[in-house]
Design goal:
The chain is α+β, with helices and mostly antiparallel strands. The protein is globular, with a radius of gyration of 19 Å. 21% of the residues are buried.
């Protein structure tokens, strides 16, 4: 976030350069299936109805058993009108899709050598998912070089989790399939 503020300050005089290369916003997220902690840069449409983000996620060994690094691409839509409540802007519903890739020798895209084709139903390195959530932020009042600051939440699930749930409904609950992500977004 500090890097984004610094870059934004240095490029403020040259809006064209800034608009071409720097993201519109930066997000920091806790949990939500893309890492214990993750950071993203992204862009949004002028009407603020759609966002696209690239996240770098990290899970430390103490939490995940192994250290995990991942990249996730997320597309978010806000289908409902925003609610204006005093100095707050509430986005009551967000929906989106994501694609997550985990790095490491323990993950694979295709079945490893000793196993026959389609031995594993899903690759362990790449997963698609979807999420629903919402957000609340200030009503566009400028805070330092930031235009907006908002908090958001997402309930996330992945292809492999849904498949496991539907084939094991007696063993798995919805809390096993969905994870909660909490984040903060700063818009420049």
């Amino acid at each position: 976030m500090l890097l984004g503020i610094t870059l934004n300050s240095n490029l403020q005089a040259n809006d064209t350069l800034r608009n071409k290369f720097l993201p519109d916003h930066i997000k920091v997220q806790f949990a939500g299936g893309i890492g214990f902690a993750s950071v993203a840069g992204g862009y949004e449409t002028k009407n603020e109805k759609f966002e696209a983000d690239i996240f770098y996620g990290y899970v430390p060994k103490k939490i995940g058993g192994v250290t995990i690094h991942s990249l996730s691409g997320k597309l978010t839509a806000y289908p409902l009108p925003n609610l204006k409540i005093k100095n707050w802007n509430v986005k009551p519903l967000s929906v989106g899709v994501l694609l997550n890739y985990s790095f490491g020798k323990q993950y694979f895209l295709f079945d490893p050598e000793p196993y026959p084709f389609n031995y594993y139903r899903f690759p362990t390195a790449l997963h698609s998912g979807f999420f629903v959530g919402g957000a609340i932020g200030n009503n566009g009042r400028k805070i330092s070089n930031l235009k907006k600051l908002s908090l958001y939440y997402e309930l996330v699930t992945y292809d492999v989790l849904l498949s496991s749930y539907f084939t094991n409904t007696k063993s798995l609950s919805l809390s096993d399939v969905f994870s909660l992500g909490l984040g903060i977004k700063t818009k420049f």
